[in-house]
Amino acid sequence: MKRLLKIIEAVRPAFDQGGKLQVFKPVFGALEHFLFAPSTTTLGAPHVRDPLDLKRLMSMVIISVVPSVLAAFYFFGLRFVFMIIVSYAAGLTVEAIFAMVRKESINEGFFVTGIIFPLILPPGVPLWMVGLGVAFGVFIGKELFGGTGRNIFNPALVGRCFLALAYPKAMSASWFEPSHELTGRLFEYFSVGPSAVDAVTVATPLVQAKSGQMCSISHLFLGSVSGSAGETSAILIILGGVFLLFTRVASWRTVVSLLGSFIVLTGALIGGGVVKCGIPGVFGPMMWHLFAGGLLFGAFFMATDPVTSPTTNAGKWLYGILIGSVTVLIRNFTGYVEGVTFAILLGNITAPILDEIVFKFRFRRLASEG
Amino acid sequence: MQFRGGYNILLKGRPGGAIKAMPEPKILYLPLSSRRFTFSEICVEDGQSVSGGDVLAKDPNNYAIPLLAPRAGRVRLQEIENYIILEDAAKLKEHADITDEDLPHIVEEMGASGIKRYRLLTLGAWQFFYDAHTGSLPDPLGTPQAIIVSTVSLEPFVARGDAQLHNRLLNFTRGLEQLQSLLEYQPIYLVMPDIKSDFANLIRNHIRGHASVKMLEIPLIYPFDDFAILARKLGLKPGEGPVWSVRTEGVLAVDRALTLTKPCTVRIISMGGTGVNSPTHIKVIPGYPIKRIKDKYVFEPVSRIINGGILTGELLGTESLGLDTECRGLTVLPELQDREFLGFIRPGWDRNCYADCFLSSLRKKFRERLTTAVRGEGRPCISCNFCEEVCPANITPHLIHKYLYRDLIEEVEEARVDLCVECGLCTIVCPSKIDLGKQIIDAKVLIANEKEEIRQEKLRQEELARKSIEEASE
User: Which of B297, B271, B294 is nearest to B282 (CA)?
Assistant: First the structure.
C-alpha cells in the first residue's frame, strides 16, 4: 500500500494546476480516491464525521442489485457481462468528459446508473444500443441538469425510455426465453439476431397476459420468464431490496406506499370486475401482477433514488401512491403493457411539487411557533 | 415531552464518575477571552499581589462579569498577550465577602433582594447562567419567565451532572432553594434522566416545600439537553422574557456564593476522548496550565485538544496556555494520519454509522475510536434527508443549503434558520460531507445582522421624523 501511495504522490504534480495532464485531473482524482480515503480533516466543530460517504452509499445499492445481476447471468447468459461492460464504458466516458469540462471530480452516482441500466433492458438488445442508451440517459437525464444531485429524472430510466421510443422494433425483438435448465446459461454467450439459431423471441408475461395467456406465479417468483434482464426474478429483487431498506439507503416509505397502493388498486379493479383476469379469484391475480414485469425492481431500486424522489417523508408517501396507482392505470387501461417506467418518470416530475407542498405546510407550522 | 431527531455519537474514552484533583499549580495563565466573554477591562496592575477571589478583569459588554483570581499570587500583565499571568500562586486566604461599608451602598442601589444577585455576579456564579434562547449571559437584574436547571450533559464529552452531584446533593438542593429565593412565582424546571429513580425521590424529599421545582424527564439522546430545545418544548417563547438556564455546576456555584458567600473559582471538567489514557473528571481552576493536564492524560502523540465536546467544542491550539473560565471539559481526538486503503468497501465492524451501512449495525452498541478524518470527499447534496431526520429543531438543513446556494435569503428565513440550535449533527451525518452546520450558522448571523440593520435604520428614520415634527412645532 505504501508503495502505491508513493506512486500516486509521484505522479500527482502532472495532474495539478499547470501540469501536463491537468485536463485529466478528475480521472486521476477518482482513481486516487477509489484506492485511498482522502486525507482531509475537520477544521472546527463538529470535529468528527460519520463514516458513511457517497462511495459507500452507492456501493450499498450495487451490492443490493448483485442478486439480480447473478440471476441475469444465470437466465440469459454471459452476454449480460458485456452489456454491463458496455454500459459502464459508455456512461463513464460521458461522465468523465463532463467532469473534465466542469473541472469537478467524477461523482459516484454513475456506478449505480451503470449497473442498473443493463438490468432494465431486454436481454437480447444489441450492445451498441446499450451504449447509446446509457450515454443518452447520463447526458440528457443528468449532466444537462447539472450533474449528480441536480437531476430531475432517473438517468437510467431516461435512457430506457429513449431506447423504447427510438427503437421500438429492435427492443420488442430482444425479449427471449430464459434458460430452463439447471445450469442456466452460465457458460454460454447467448446472442439474438437473424444469425442466431438458438434465440427464441418470446413475449413477456404481461404481453401474453393481454391475450389471455398467464404464466404461473411460481415462474414469476423465481424468474424463469421472459423480461428485462434483471426484473424477472421477484425473490432475488425482494432479497436485495430488503437489504437496501435495512441499510436505510432506500426509504421504506416509498416502497411500502408504492407496492401497497398497487396491490390495493389492482385488487379493487379485479374484485370489482373492471379488469378481467385469466386466473380466478382476487388474491392470485393480485400477486401475479405484483411479481410480473418491472414493478418490484422499479419500486425497490428506481423509485427510491434519493435525488429524484421527494425528500420529505410525507412527500415520499404521496410519491409512492402516485407511482403505484399510475402503474395500475397504465397496465390495465392503455396500449402499453408495462407502466412502471412511465409511472416513475411521472413521479420524478411531481417530486419537487410534492416537496414544495409539504414544505409549505411545515413552514406554516414553524411560523406559528414564536 | 415529544422530541424528534437527535443522535448519540459513541466516542471512545467516556470519563468515569470519579473526580480527581489536580496538583496545585505554581503559575496560572488566565485567558482574557472565552466563548461568551471578553475581559477587556483590566482591574489590576502589573506586579500587584492579589488574593483569591479578587477581580482581575471585567467584561463591560456582559454586565461587568468579573474574572476572578482563583488563587493568591502576583499579577503579570504584559508577558503574554491576551493572558493574565498569576505567579507564585498559592492557596492562601480568600477574598472576603462584601465588606460592611459597601453593604448599605449596594442595598441602596439594588434593593434588599438585589444583594443576592450582586453576590452571584461578583462571586463568579453568574457566569454559569445562560439565556435559553440566545445562549448568551442573561441580565442578572432581570426577571426570568422560568429557570431551567439541567443535570444532564449529553455531548461527548463535557462534565456530567451525576459526577458532580455525587456527595453534593445537599449543596445542590440548597442551591435550588437559593434560586427559588430569586424568583417570585416563576417555575424552576429540573431536567433529569429519570424522574422516578431513587435519586430523583431523594431530591424531592430534600426540597419539599422550599422550592417549587417541576421535574422533567428527557431521553438521553444528544442534544435534547440543549436549553433552546427544552425552552421550545416547554412553550417558553423568546418574546416573553428571558429564560435563565443553568447546569449542575451552576446550581452548586449558586449555593457556594449565596450560602457560603465564597468565590466560585473551582471547576470540575471532564477529561475524555479517544486520546486520553484514563478518562475521568478533574477538579481544576481557571488558568490551570494546559500543558500539565496534557502531560498527565494525553497519550496520543498527534492529537487535537478540544475545549468542550466534539460537536460544539473549540479547537485549543498549541498557543493556548491555560484553561478559560467557561471550560466544561477537554476532549482529545487523535489526528488522522494514515489514509485507508479501499476504505469504502471494508466491512466496517469497528465503525458506527448513522445509516446502518456497515457491518457494525449487527453488533451491540460500542464506543468507537474516532479521529478527525472527514472520511470522504465533498460531493453535491443528494437529498438523502439524513440531516432532516437528525435535526432536533425540526428544520430542514439540506433545503436551507440549497436556498443558500441560490442566494434565496428570504426563503432561508422562512425555513426558520433561526431555530437552529447549532448542535452540529447535520454536518456529521451528511454522506456528501457538506458542512451544513457552518452554512446554517453563517446564514443565521447574516440574517440577524440584516435585521439589526433594518431596526437601526427604522430607529434613525423615526428619530428624524420626530425631530422634524419638533422643529415644525417650534
Answer: B271
